[in-house]
């Protein structure tokens, strides 16, 4: 096996066509792929190399939405990645023509020549999958991320067996796929998730007149999966991070910290933070439909969150958003640097399995922090402070307690804060008892003392 370093860049050519340029072999080899759709240059995000979210592109008399463009780009990039993985596993360096042919094959662009016949040709497995994507993407209003998950699962199946067909997909093939995931270092949790996605596609096939081999849909992966470690800032850590003073030369870290803390004080996801406008703020509440699930949420703005809003009152954007939010990847990178500088170095132990092998990794918190930890922090700190789960769910948009469970890993923190009430009550009782025994002169002296130090 060899490591093949490669890079991909998505851009618009001078005709407005979406093109992906792939370079490898120390940039000596280069191949270009036309994605097959055009985009409006004014609505193209050069930094993220994608069509801007929620835009409509009218080019050359054709209309296409950003989601379709970006889904197509993601599909190409995934096929390119899988192609390099195959060559890497076989310790081969592809030529330009070989890479182009393999990627096009994975995309279903290479079709066998069919002799005209009165008998209708049966659809290939790939064509059935494309039908599934087209129908379900429309019927279920998939986001780009959901579309990408199915494309990824399909590419994994093809990497396991490039000649896979519905006829050859049986229980033994499912076992081969499981071994492929283990061989390629995928964690068991990821493997189980990918099988769940694949089965969703296969159930659709089975329900639409393409019989699936018996035993495939009932196939059990039977891999050990440990409980997922949920990372979040504890209450004191959050307050420390929120008030930490960064050097003036590190202004970008100050901004990244503020964005994280605002998510931690409001439960907003990164996508909602990026889309937050002044029009969404009314009567001390954030009222908006979430970008991910389209749920309407109402979140009371606490003092800490309001301070951040006020801090960025100078910011004005054409779209009306209230914060200068960096891209998701950049923000995650800045957060790691900011958290390290702020001393958030609590150790986090991660245990996972790959096949039957148990692995354990120990990280500093600043090495693992990401945007989504803000939302987890909101849930965990709110529960630790004794706020009702019902109130927390009304802010986060979770439909039920079960769906919120992955975020709730605060047993120790909650226990400590709640048990502290015993001590607090003890102190209060002691003070009241002492005050009851004092005469008026003594009480007057205490009041004077308190007034002088207040």
Give an overview of the whole structure.
By secondary structure, the chain is an alpha+beta fold. Among the domains are: 175 residues, hpI Integrase, Chain A (Orthogonal Bundle); 31 residues. Helix content is 49%, strand content 14%. It has 17 helices and twelve strands. It has a three-stranded antiparallel beta sheet with strand order 1-2-3. It has a three-stranded antiparallel beta sheet with strand order 8-9-10. A two-stranded antiparallel ribbon has the order 4-5. β2 and β3 form a beta hairpin. α1 packs across α2 and α4 packs across α6.
The amount of helix comes to 40-55%
Strand content: 5-15%
Multimeric organization? single chain
CATH architectural group of one domain = Orthogonal Bundle
If you consult CATH, what is the topology of one domain? hpI Integrase, Chain A
- Could you tell me the number of beta strands? 12
What is the highest CATH level, the class of one domain?
Answer: Mainly Alpha
Helix count? 17
What's the arrangement of strands in the largest beta sheet? 1-2-3
**From N to C, what is the helix and strand string?**
EEEEEEEHHHHHHHHHEEEHHEEHHHHHH
> Quick one: CATH superfamily of one domain?
Intergrase catalytic core
Integer average pLDDT: 86
What gap, in angstroms, lies between the N and C termini? 71 Å
Shape: globular
For the largest beta-sheet, the strand count, sense and barrel status come to: 3 strands, antiparallel
Q: State the secondary-structure class.
A: alpha+beta
- Unreliable runs, pLDDT <50, ≥5 residues? 112-119
Rg, Å, rounded: 28 Å
